[in-house]
Amino acid sequence: AQSVTQLDSQVPVFEEAPVELRCNYSSSVSVYLFWYVQYPNQGLQLLLKYLSGSTLVKGINGFEAEFNKSQTSFHLRKPSVHISDTAEYFCAVTRPNDYKLSFGAGTTVTVRA
Amino acid sequence: DVKVTQSSRYLVKRTGEKVFLECVQDMDHENMFWYRQDPGLGLRLIYFSYDVKMKEKGDIPEGYSVSREKKERFSLILESASTNQTSMYLCASSPRDRGAEQYFGPGTRLTVT
Asked: Which chain A residues are within 8 Å of B95, Cβ to Cβ?
């Protein structure tokens, strides 16, 4: 079974600064990887996903992530954050022959002016 | 626009009560999911349904059951609510395509007293 570790539970950051959220997964087989965002009092929505192909994936709202198979990582980045990026971010993994996602514990990003 | 709705945003029940959480999706998706979300634990899958009347246990099914009589509706049932089931419950749906995005409802915050 696969599992996901999000290395930071809280990330405070100033507005217009860059942010990186770290995600490592464990799996002995190929995986699909996802980043979801949860704004306060809302459900989750997809930021981006990696299925195959280019290891650099671009998502919505200026986010991108890089798949690194040798390091089993899928870190999320944004070069310049806004106040509106304050949210909880979840990394998730699944196998190509499965529908069920395994989620990490989440990283809370707080953007300050 | 994609829509997953949950019957209640907030619910307060007493220990021992039978509790029904309802989820409806309007996207004709084959797959539906129930998760619980707890701080520091991320999302954990309770049950998954891949077709009408079909279900599969997730990681934490104990104390829960589900019902899917129609494609658009997926119900989570707490047979006898306990205080340790106080949590946020999220419903999601996805099409059958491998690697497809899951679409989430806004969640139901259940408190069992």
From this structure: none
